[in-house]
Specification:
- By secondary structure, this protein is α/β, with parallel strands linked by helices.
- It folds into three domains: 6-22 and 246-439, UDP-n-acetylglucosamine1-carboxyvinyl-transferase, Chain (Alpha-beta prism), CATH 3.65.10; 25-243, UDP-n-acetylglucosamine1-carboxyvinyl-transferase, Chain; 441-659, 3-Layer(aba) Sandwich (Rossmann fold).
- Helix 13 (456-467) packs across helix 23 (645-659).
- The protein is globular.
- The chain binds 2'-deoxycytidine-5'-monophosphate (DC).
Length: 663
Amino acid sequence: MFSTAFLDIPALQGASGTVTLPGSKSISNRVLLLSALCQGTTVVHDLLDSDDTRVMLAALRQLGCGVEVQGTTVTITGLGGRTWPTEAIEFFMGNAGTAMRPLTAALAVQGGDFTLKGVPRMHERPIGDLVDALRELGCAIDYLGNEGYPPLRIRQPALQLDKPIPVRGDVSSQFLTALLMALPLAAQDRAITIEVVGELISKPYIEITLNLLARYGIAVERQGWERFVIPAGSRYQSPGTIHVEADASSASYFIALGAIAKGDGIRIQGVGADSIQGDIRFMDAAAQMGAHITSGPNWLEIQRGAWPLKGITLDCNHIPDAAMTLAVMALYADGPTTLRNIASWRVKETDRIVAMATESRKLGATVEEGPDWITIHPLPAGKWQRASVHTYDDHRVAMCFSLAAFNADQVPVRIEDPKCVAKTFPDYFEALFSVAHTAASNIPVICIDGPTASGKGTLASRVAAALGYHYLDSGALYRVTAHAALQAGLTLEAIDEAKIADLARSLPVHFEGEQVLLNNVDVTDAIRSEQGGMNASKVSVLPAVREALVQLQHSFQRLPGLLADGRDMGTVIFPEAPLKVFLTASATQRAERRHKQLISKGFSANIDALRADLEARDARDMSRSVAPLKPAQDALQLDNSSLTIEASVEQVMVWWQSRQVFG
Ligand code: DC
């Protein structure tokens, strides 16, 4: 996840490949509860791993369900046909609304001695409408805190099922979902009717519930959106195996990507055209705009079709969330696009009509808006502007505008607060970058060169973290090369140069956070020692070895950008880098820092010896014939002898921002 203050997405040129989308949250928890209420075993594939599903799984275990987790596959042995627990159980529901509501209903209808609690915020989330409905049918539920809110205490019910059960539909559709999933427990010998009071909101979510109930053998009779009848004799039946679909709204960004980006097409794994989620109908709208879409069980493939895309006018009431993605596709169309019947945009995470209009205008677009509609005019080449997109703590605004990076003018797009995507898709940008591609010249590299122990590594990795960029520690590559050479029984001298270069060319090295793995073995400590540094220094003067490492170093230049640290980053490896910093510090300072570092790692060290060693190494490094230490001509010098790390990071960020101006 990108938890940086902003994410600069370089201008993108194409996209190809497969993205596997995470399982839908709403479907995951419904499937878990239904599997628990069945008799027998259900194998659930592609379950979303999130706070909400963990809470549900923990509760099911407490109830005595069999729960076996293997990655994203979970095997549930249901409670159907078994005796329910009679002992008192206290459930902790965290802040998981999708667990709290349906569990409350199921437990209340079944009866027992149950307490349901959550985090303080959960105790502020209303549940009164559901409790009222459950009490109406004879459930025994008490509020342990504030009236209308969790925590709750549930006892044995005295069910009265002869008259219709009223439930409010205009606050949260989750209350109706909870009743629909729980009441089959009580419908053995009589039909049960639920009556919705008020206009039912979020109907697509009720469709998901009804669809899933059908998969579990419960055929609810729907009369308009006002009455739902659970037939007499209803019994949960395990489907045996079930796949949790990926979130269809999340899929919309990759459907749009396939329609916009040049390339071999995008395959989306996890959701198909036969999805039970309302937002899947986004694919029809995308097709109308020009996308070529094919689908099979649980997958979609999208190719760019008409180009430019075709402007459309569409009533979007049935796809309110995914329709936002159309607004960005509209920038690439041949005429204006009008999205109608989107009044609900005004009351979502933010006023989404205002948000989409304001941010599209920042990019240069002409936008008109009304109370429940928006018209977006296409943005032709020559008119795109570099914009810093405000995201209003709205995951969908952030994901939508990432697609503006395919603009004809090849300007980058800044997304503010990128971590807001965590609400539904924490790894959205990673998924985007795994399929998007662009010219190397579009992917920024910031080089930090400088003498040994100047603090390059720390500075580079901090700046990388602040920008969400990759980090190349080129010194580590020389260290690992030396390590591999010694392991292979080679000397670190010129006579073995060709063999060491061969090793370097296909070095099986991986970085995992701070760890360096060679052939999947952790060699971090071995290469970070003083001896490791000496050895690296020896192989680094062998020209064939330097040449052999060039390609590997270039391969680190990946989206969205790179911080490269090492003496020749700005001079040899990335000479075109838009920002080069030459970091220096006095030998005394560097010796002190290195001393601290070594001591903290449990190595013994002597400051004076370190200092003498550093000075000797500087002299050698500056005068050596192969890759001598020297600043690139266009490098900015930064002497950090008397600067804190934070101040150095700040300075580099200021330089970088001054070269990356976003309107
Ligand atoms: O930065 P470091 O201490 O990990 O570097 C180890 C050795 O490798 C050091 O002697 C400098 C050398 N080196 C190099 O020649 N070129 C680089 N790009 C990085 C390091």
